[in-house]
């Protein structure tokens, strides 16, 4: 059980690293602040963009990582 959880934690950590590295940066300065806010305000289907899919993958894998960490501490 311990080795299965360890392998699962390594896989989720790799998924977190890859999904965070694939996300675009959001630091565009002041011009990005004005254009970015209007772009997201008027954007349609915000849930289907690649950025939102990567953000959702990151959030789900982070929760899985936390759960496997807690499980590893309880099994040990």
From TrEMBL:
<protein>
    <recommendedName>
        <fullName>Protein-export membrane protein SecG</fullName>
    </recommendedName>
</protein>
<keyword id="KW-1003">Cell membrane</keyword>
<keyword id="KW-0472">Membrane</keyword>
<feature type="transmembrane region" description="Helical">
    <location>
        <begin position="53"/>
        <end position="75"/>
    </location>
</feature>
<dbReference type="GO" id="GO:0009306">
    <property type="term" value="P:protein secretion"/>
</dbReference>
<dbReference type="Pfam" id="PF03840">
    <property type="entry name" value="SecG"/>
</dbReference>
<dbReference type="GO" id="GO:0065002">
    <property type="term" value="P:intracellular protein transmembrane transport"/>
</dbReference>
<keyword id="KW-0653">Protein transport</keyword>
<dbReference type="GO" id="GO:0043952">
    <property type="term" value="P:protein transport by the Sec complex"/>
</dbReference>
<keyword id="KW-1133">Transmembrane helix</keyword>
<comment type="similarity">
    <text>Belongs to the SecG family.</text>
</comment>
<keyword id="KW-0811">Translocation</keyword>
<comment type="function">
    <text>Involved in protein export. Participates in an early event of protein translocation.</text>
</comment>
<dbReference type="InterPro" id="IPR004692">
    <property type="entry name" value="SecG"/>
</dbReference>
<keyword id="KW-0812">Transmembrane</keyword>
<dbReference type="GO" id="GO:0005886">
    <property type="term" value="C:plasma membrane"/>
</dbReference>
<dbReference type="GO" id="GO:0015450">
    <property type="term" value="F:protein-transporting ATPase activity"/>
</dbReference>
<keyword id="KW-0813">Transport</keyword>
